[in-house]
Design goal:
The complex is a heterodimer of chains A (about 120) and B (about 120).
Chain A: E1 3-5, E2 10-14, E3 19-21, E4 24-26, E5 31-38, E6 44-50, E7 56-58, E8 64-68, E9 73-78, E10 87-95, E11 104-105, E12 109-114
Parallel strand pairs in A: 2-12
Antiparallel strand pairs in A: 1-4, 3-9, 5-6, 5-10, 7-8, 8-9, 10-11, 10-12
Chain B: E1 5-7, E2 10-13, E3 19-24, E4 31-37, E5 43-50, E6 53-56, E7 65-68, E8 75-79, E9 88-95, E10 106-107, E11 111-115
Parallel strand pairs in B: 2-11
Antiparallel strand pairs in B: 1-3, 3-8, 4-5, 4-9, 5-6, 7-8, 9-10, 9-11
Classes of the chains: A mainly beta (about 120), B mainly beta (about 120).
Chain lengths: ~120, ~120
């Protein structure tokens, strides 16, 4: 069984500040990990994914995430927040080698960016 | 290449009516997933289909819900005799038929169902 924990439901940062959104996972087999972003009333857009290549993954819009097996974490970071980053962010896990790629999502974190 | 399409975008039903949600996957994608997003919750997996086959329906409620992905046409998620608790956003995602477990799922814009 797999699960994802995203602590806290809301993060607020100032424009230009570091963004750090935390994600911890639980998986009985090596996982694939994903970060998706959802803007209001829209679908989910993939930011980045980890599929066992480099542990530091770079995604779109300046985001990156680092897979740390020892900490079972996959935290999302961006050096400098932009107003357009305000959205909801979901971390998700799928089972490597599984018969299908159904995703197990965390509850999501809403990111607010202050001017 | 058009993305995943879902219709309708918004659907209002009264209790007891039927809701039909449609999903057209991206061109070349033969795997379809349905997820439900309840208010203040993350997305929950419902069902995984390939053309004419249900592969995994472990997330589907036992009653009133069904899904299909026919050889021709869109995937359909059908909810019979809707209740207020069915009000949610329903998202469809598709992926290509290669090395399934690591393939990216591409999400549609969702159908927001409101049951009065």
């Amino acid at each position: 069984a797999q699960s994802v924990t995203q602590l806290g439901s809301h993060v607020s940062v100032s424009e230009g500040a570091l963004v750090l959104l935390r994600c911890n996972y639980s998986s009985s087999v090596p996982p694939y990990l994903f970060w998706y972003v959802q803007y209001p009333n829209q679908g989910l857009q993939l930011l980045l994914k980890y599929t066992s290549a480099a542990t530091l993954v770079k995604g779109i819009n300046g985001f990156e995430a680092e897979f740390k097996k020892s900490e079972t974490s996959f935290h999302l970071t961006k050096p400098s927040a932009h107003m357009s980053d305000a959205a909801e962010y979901f971390c998700a896990v799928s089972e490597r080698g599984g018969a299908n790629s159904k995703l197990t999502f965390g509850k999501g974190i809403t990111l607010s960016v202050r001017p | 290449n058009a993305g995943v399409m879902q219709n309708p975008r918004h659907l209002v039903r009264r209790r007891g009516q039927e809701a039909r949600l449609r999903c057209s996957p991206m061109k070349g994608h033969s795997h379809v997933y349905w997820y439900r997003q309840l208010p203040e919750e993350g997305l929950k997996f419902m069902v995984y289909l390939q053309k004419e086959n249900i592969i995994d329906e472990s997330g589907m409620p036992k009653e009133r819900f069904s899904a299909e992905f026919p050889k021709e046409g869109p995937s359909i998620l059908r909810i019979q005799q809707v209740v207020r608790g069915d009000s949610a956003a329903y998202f469809c995602a598709s992926s290509p038929p290669l090395r399934a477990s690591q393939e990216t799922q591409y999400f549609g814009p969702g159908t927001r169902l409101l049951v009065l």
